[in-house]
Automatic annotation (TrEMBL), chain A:
Coiled-coil regions, chain positions: 127-214, 372-399
Protein localization: Cell junction, Adherens junction; Cytoplasm, Cytoskeleton, Microtubule organizing center, Centrosome, Centriolar satellite
Protein name: Afadin- and alpha-actinin-binding protein isoform X6
Organism of this sequence: Phyllostomus discolor
Ligase recorded as keyword: no
Main localization, broad class: other
Automatic annotation (TrEMBL), chain B:
Highest rank taxon of the organism: Eukaryota
InterPro entries: Centrosome-WD_assoc, Quino_amine_DH_bsu, WD40/YVTN_repeat-like_dom_sf, WD40_rpt
Organism lineage string: Eukaryota, Metazoa, Chordata, Craniata, Vertebrata
Membrane-traversing stretches: none
UniProt protein name: WD repeat-containing protein WRAP73
One term under GO cellular component: MWP complex
UniProt source species: Phyllostomus discolor
Family annotation (PANTHER family): WD REPEAT PROTEIN 8-RELATED, WD REPEAT-CONTAINING PROTEIN WRAP73
């Protein structure tokens, strides 16, 4: 419909004519007629009007037209007659005016007709479309109706099935119930039978026992060459009430020993944990006490608690002995204070974290970037200068060489001899000047490098200062982490020897000789980098002859268990290193710091 | 690693003496005692019939040989070869015989578990214990040899009697709340007795030496229960393997579960190392004949990429004793590792890290695992699969070693020497010793390479 619309868009008459022709709608036919009749109007005027007007009936036709026109509201064709009797004369002007108006009217009509035509066409197409739509929808409706009926049917079937299934389920359930009942009854029956059988069996056993044992069975005997002494060398003792009591005693002794041992272990563990807790507390206090000195900075209420806690300190020494005596009295106090301080520490660390990130975002970057840019620009400039100087030197050298080569000619030599000396002197002068220049350049360069070095040193110093400050901060925290790790180790010690110690003890000495003897340092280094079953390791196995397969497997297998802890340890070390002594890049330093932060967080979270 | 020559053996009867000096092995009706290091024959005893059971006394001075068919036990002395002792159970029959921990008493169980006879080698005295229960593991001596715990059945109820071994006096006698007790075992410290019920019901009971019930544990109901249980040498843990394919580790303080160690056939944890035994492709791919045809192909371990799925066995549901669940489990001597076998994944041995309570290593063999045993000195596991190879695992790694010798030597079982330096490999008709040299300082756990052929 849309396309159609655009085609029939009544912009050009030709187009509309064309379409109307092709479409051959009745209305268009009509318009064609009209058009046909209107276009040749000018050509066949005579033939056209011959029927209406002839030489003879001009008057009549004029009057007829006049009449007609006047009835249509046009002015009369005749001139206003002064008298009735006088013959009215044809007013040419009026005729022409009328004609013109008629023509205009005709054009207007034609236009209107065309519009109506297109409108009609549009409407017709719309109609068609709508009819199509209607048909389609009708079809759809029909199909959906059919579908609905189908679905309803299916639904009904399913419901039916469902009902059946429900019924089946119910039946099954009943069946299960029945079977369960049967099983239960069978079980009881079985148990009962078992018991009966067992009783019978026991009776039989008893009987058999009597038969077999009570009969003086000569066969049941022990032949010994001679009796041997007891393992402990003592003589056997009689069974008396005394021995019974002694046995009891011994048993309880054993039990007591066991409990004592366990208690001792628990006490030891407790003491260790207590120690750790105390140390933690102390370190927290020492960590938090510097904040007290600048209370303006931390004017929250938390400082108050810190101070109060710190103020309690003097009395602690005397109390420490009490802690050893019994835990219960101080336990709550200790845990409470630890908790409190832990909260403070946490908030403090968070604040620090924020600060660090802020600083990292704002100040650091600017300073760093600017200085580096300066530096780079400066060096670039200098390099450019040096390049220029070098080029100059080169050209001059070339010139000198040219001079020298030209001097070779014998014929010219004589001629040149005269001013060669002069030139030589000049050249010498130039040369010295040149050298001086070069020296100056060199000096400048050196001074600049020195300046650069100084700059670097300064920055390093600054960086170090900063690092040390950060380290101070974090060392306090890392000491706290040490506590944690100690704690963890203690925990693992509880279930055997420490894991890492064990691993290192087992694997360190082994890896070394293998690394040397097998000539596989490449391999081992690969292991440390990559995880267990890297293809390189298996390749390595393949290449090794069978005899040393053993060892190669050994190497291969050392890695998975060992590499991980080792790696972890190295990472840890590198992190610490970056905090302590890596002034090269501030970014690294910061990331290192944040790493330790997160680490400490994680470890703390691990704490049960 | 060196191997001894192959010696004859019958019924896989081969035992190291507790002091580690001697090695006793049985060939039909002969008992051969060798020096454990030189393997020279020191004594040769002749019994009256085919030996079915042999056991060293705790002080390594005596050996008892049981001939169940004849209802006969013969005791031999190592110090006095001419000394002999013969215990005849007569018409009562004999189904089991063992030493008491002092090495001066022999405990014989008669047929139909009518009674237990305690024969003394020191005096003429004979003691009887009535109603011993016929079950999987009904007798348990405490590690220090002081007490004997014995499962009993009277009036359709289970009882446990605790005897003092020095004079066989009854110390405690209590009934256990079990339906059909299946096993008892002392904790290595001798203060706690673990009791578990028949497989029809999951029930583990823990009794103190004085008969008090310390704890009862039941993981689930309405399904097959405990299949095997083992104490850690430190007495800290009791590992209970059950038919649901899990090991539950109980702690010794609260007797609650510390960890449930599942044995799924798919290992997906990337921290776990899976060693997969692989047939070594014949070396002579360049035209050289690979290996003698009578020798089985050599194998080696490859570290498999996790996730790994292990071969599983579909158990026959309609048979008794289905091949599912944890049928074998053992702690290493330092209590740091636990080795387990899930019977429906027969080719694999799981090694758990007890300190972290998680899976550490899985060994997947080419054949079903027949037996495994920990080195008594260090965390080192020996595994055999009924093939001609022996496998060793330690935290440092894993090796597969071909047992040399002509013919097919099938390692059905193995036992460690008490110092962990050698390992007896037992086949159907033969045995050989495997010597594992140790470097000074205990550096290598698997012995040096090179001597392996």
């Amino acid at each position: 419909m849309g396309d159609w619309m655009t085609i029939t868009d009544p912009e050009s008459k030709n187009l509309s004519q064309y379409t109307s022709e092709t479409k051959m709608s009745p209305s268009s036919l009509y318009s064609q007629q009209v058009l046909c009749s209107s276009i040749p109007l000018s050509k066949n005027v005579h033939s056209f009007f011959s029927a209406f007007c002839t030489e003879e009936n001009i008057e009549q036709s004029i009057s007829y037209l006049d009449q007609e026109l006047t009835t249509f509201g046009f002015p009369s064709l005749y001139e206003e007659s002064k008298g009735k009797e006088t013959k009215r004369e044809l007013n040419i002007v009026a005729v022409l005016n009328c004609m013109n108006e008629l023509l205009i009217l005709q054009r207007k009509n034609l236009l209107a007709q065309e519009n109506v035509e297109t409108q009609n066409l549009k409407l017709g197409s719309d109609m068609d479309h709508l009819q199509n739509c209607y048909a389609k929808l009708k079809e759809q409706l029909e199909t959906s109706r059919r579908e609905m009926i189908g679905l309803q049917e299916r639904d009904r079937q399913l419901q039916c099935k469902n009902r059946n299934l429900h019924q089946l389920l119910k039946n099954e359930k009943d069946e299960v119930q029945k079977l369960q009942n049967i099983i239960a009854s069978r079980a009881t029956q079985y148990n009962h039978d078992m018991k009966r059988k067992e009783r019978e069996y026991n009776k039989l056993k008893e009987r058999l026992h009597q038969l077999v044992m009570n009969k003086k069975d000569k066969k049941i005997a022990m032949e010994v060459l001679n009796y041997v002494g007891r393992a402990d060398g003592k003589r056997g003792s009689w069974r008396t009430g005394k021995s019974e009591a002694r046995n009891e005693d011994e048993m309880y002794k054993i039990l007591l020993n066991d409990y004592e041992y366990r208690q001792k272990q628990i006490l030891m563990e407790n003491a260790e944990l207590k120690k750790v807790l105390q140390q933690m507390k102390k370190e927290m206090i020492s960590l938090l006490s510097p904040q007290k000195q600048k209370p303006r900075e931390r004017a929250d209420d938390s400082t108050g608690t810190v101070i109060s806690d710190v103020e309690e300190d003097p009395g602690e020494l005397s109390r420490e002995s009490m802690w050893d005596l019994s835990c219960e009295t101080v336990r709550e106090q200790l845990t409470n204070s630890i908790r409190k301080q832990w909260r403070i520490l946490k908030s403090h660390v968070e604040k620090l974290d924020n600060q660090v990130s802020k600083v990292h975002l704002e100040g650091f970057n600017d300073e760093d970037v600017i200085s580096r840019q300066d530096h780079e620009e400066e060096t670039e400039k200098l390099e450019l200068e040096i390049q220029q100087c070098k080029e100059m030197i080169k050209t001059q050298q070339q010139l000198l060489q040219q001079l020298a080569t030209t001097c070779d000619d014998d014929t010219t030599s004589l001629l040149r001899d005269c001013y060669l000396l002069e030139e030589k002197e000049r050249l010498k002068e130039e040369w010295s000047l040149f050298k001086e220049q070069k020296k100056n350049f060199e000096k400048e360069r050196r001074s600049f490098t020195e300046a650069a070095i100084r700059l670097g040193l300064e920055r390093k110093a600054f960086e170090e200062e900063r690092a040390s400050w950060l380290k101070q901060q974090f060392l306090n925290m890392t000491t706290f982490d040490h506590q944690n790790s100690e704690n963890v180790r203690l925990f693992s010690a509880f279930s055997g020897s420490s894991d890492q110690d064990n691993l290192t003890a087992h694997s360190r000495p082994r890896q070394k000789p293998h690394g040397v003897s097998n000539g596989a340092p490449v391999c081992s280094s690969k292991f440390t980098k990559s995880l267990p079953a890297s293809p390189s390791t298996s390749d390595f196995c393949h290449t090794r002859p069978c005899v040393s397969e053993h060892s190669s497997i050994n190497v291969l297998n050392v890695t998975p268990e060992e590499a991980k802890p080792n790696r972890a340890g190295r990472e840890c070390a590198s992190q610490k290193w970056s905090v302590a002594s890596r002034p090269g890049s501030q970014d690294g330093c910061c990331s290192g710091c944040s790493l330790t932060y997160t680490n400490s967080h994680v470890e703390k979270d691990d704490l049960p | 690693m060196n191997f001894s020559e192959v010696f004859k053996l019958s019924s896989q009867l081969c035992k190291f003496s507790p002091d580690g000096k001697y090695l006793a092995s049985c060939v039909q009706y002969r008992l051969v005692v060798r020096d454990a290091s030189s393997l020279q024959i020191l004594q040769l005893y002749t019994c009256v019939d085919q030996i079915q059971h042999v056991e060293w006394s705790a002080d390594s001075l005596f050996l008892l040989c049981a001939m169940y068919k004849r209802g006969l036990v013969q005791v031999w002395s190592l110090e006095q070869p001419e000394w002999h002792c013969r215990i005849d159970e007569g018409s009562a029959g004999l189904v089991a015989s063992c030493w008491s921990p002092d090495g001066r008493h022999v405990l014989n169980t008669t047929e139909f578990h009518l009674r237990m006879t305690v024969w003394s080698l020191c005096t003429k005295s004979v003691s009887y214990i009535k109603y011993p229960k016929a079950c999987q593991q009904g007798v348990s001596f405490s590690r220090d040899g002081r007490y004997l715990a014995l499962a009993e059945r009277r009036d359709c109820k289970d009882y446990v009697s605790i005897f003092v071994c020095s004079d066989w006096q009854l110390l405690r006698h209590f009934d256990t709340g079990t339906q059909d007790l299946a096993g008892i075992e002392w904790a290595p410290n001798g203060c706690v007795l673990a009791v578990w019920d028949t497989c029809l019901e999951y029930k583990v009971l823990l009794y103190s030496l004085d008969g008090r019930l310390l704890a009862a544990y039941c993981a689930y109901e309405w399904s097959l229960g405990v299949k095997a249980a083992a104490w850690s040498p430190s007495s800290q843990f009791l590992a209970v393997g059950s038919y649901d394919g899990k090991v539950r580790v109980l702690n010794h303080v609260t007797w609650k579960v510390l960890a449930e160690l599942g044995h799924p056939a798919a290992v997906s944890d990337s921290r776990v190392v899976v060693y997969k035994e692989a047939e070594k492709s014949p070396r002579g791919s360049l035209g050289r004949p690979a290996c003698p045809p009578h020798r089985a192909a050599e194998s080696r371990y490859e570290v498999a990429e996790v996730p790994v799925s292990l071969q599983t066995l579909k158990p026959a549901a309609d048979r008794a004793n289905p091949k599912i669940g944890i049928g074998a489990l053992a702690f290493s001597a330092d209590s740091c590792f636990l080795a387990t076998r899930n019977d429906n994944v027969p080719n694999a041995v799981w090694v758990w890290d007890v300190r972290k309570l998680r899976l550490f290593v899985v060994l997947e063999q080419l054949g079903p695992v027949r037996a495994f045993q920990w080195d008594p000195q260090q965390p080192r596991l020996a595994v055999c699969t009924g093939g001609s190879k022996v496998y060793l695992w330690s935290p440092a790694g894993c090796v597969s070693v071909q047992v040399p010798g002509e013919g097919d030597f099938q390692v059905l079982s193995l036992c460690w020497h008490s110092n962990g330096d050698s390992l007896a490999l037992l086949g159907k008709d033969h045995f050989c010793l495997c010597f594992l040299e140790t470097e000074d300082g205990g550096g290598s756990a698997l012995g040096p390479p090179g001597s392996l052929t």
